[in-house]
Amino acid sequence: MKQELSSAIVKLADLDNLIKKDSFDNDVYIFDDITNVSVDDTPIKVEMPVFAICIQGSAKVELNLKEYQVNSNSLFTLMPDHILHGYSHSEDFKGIFIAVGNKCVDELLPDIHTALPVIMSFRTSPVVKLTEEETSIFKQMHAFLWMMIRSNVGIYKKKVVNSLLQSLLYVALSVYKTRYKFTEMKRSRNEDIFFNFVTLLEHEFKEERTVQHYADKLCITPKHLSTVVKIVSGKTAGEWIDGYVILAAKVMLRSSSRTIQEISVELNFPNQSFFGKFFKKHVGIPP
Q1: pTM (2 d.p.)
Q2: CA 70 – CA 89 distance, rounded (Å)
Q3: Which of 116, 132, 237, 260 lies at a 20 to 30 A Cα distance from 71?
Q4: Max Cα distance, the chain (Å)
């Protein structure tokens, strides 16, 4: 399980030093002590959703080139492809953590399209302040889920665990919906297009970097896609595409032993020179 934890959750340094941890079917990881976990300056790509509640104290988390303050009674959500640069916490910090496999999340949220705007809020606003009641609910659900993972309840154990996870996910979604009512109130065709575009982009940016490709997938014209994305997000579709590629390139350059040539191939550039020019254009310095 040590290797599973270090490779499947978030690839954090010293993750094997977690004092209390349990897992279930390699889909769910639950723990409550990260005292001995440290993150250096090497960027880390999050591999699966992680829900964390700060119970006491505070922490600072560097995520996707931004720093977030996590105080007590806060929900902090890490999503796949978030880039974690580091974190620090106060001496009195206490928290609870649940990591859920991507496949498991897909199975637990059958109405994924309806939940997509809220899930997008996970990515753009990873920290949410909780009420005392909400914190208490998460603590009790965490404790009960942990107890069931450790228990032997027979052939329906997986169904029981999945039901508890589903409940926890919907509580988290409800918290975000309460905080971000504007997302639901202003939901429009344009926002649907934007959310679907970003979802496609997250999965295909390494292979496809043209606005035409994503417009074709969404059955609209490239001009319409660019206009809609600019209206909703303030950035053009091309800027979103380039941003994903550059962030991935930075992560690979900083945290892997791959050569620039190997990285350019993985990011689907025709050659190393083309990748170098692209990177320098957007970053200001060569890779």
Answers
A1: 0.60
A2: 9
A3: 116
A4: 59
CA proximity to 117, closest of 225, 221, 203, 193: 193
In whole angstroms, give the CA distance from residue 276 to residue 202: 22
CB of 170 closer than 8 Å to CB of 162: no
DSSP-derived secondary structure letter, 48: S
Other beta carbons within 10 angstroms of residue 287's beta carbon come to 16
In three-state secondary structure terms, 202 is helix
CA distances from 265 to 112, 240, 251, 254, 255 (A): 33, 21, 15, 17, 17
Per-residue tokens: 171: 């509580």
Residue with tokens 């001496």: 91
Per-residue pLDDT tens for 208-220? 899 999 999 999 9
3 state SS of 154: coil
**How do residues 119-159 score in pLDDT, each as one tens digit?**
667 777 889 999 999 999 999 999 998 888 888 877 888 88
Distance of CA 175 to the CA centre of its chain: 17
CB-based burial of residue 159 (10 Å sphere; 0-12 exposed, 13-18 middle, 19+ buried)? exposed
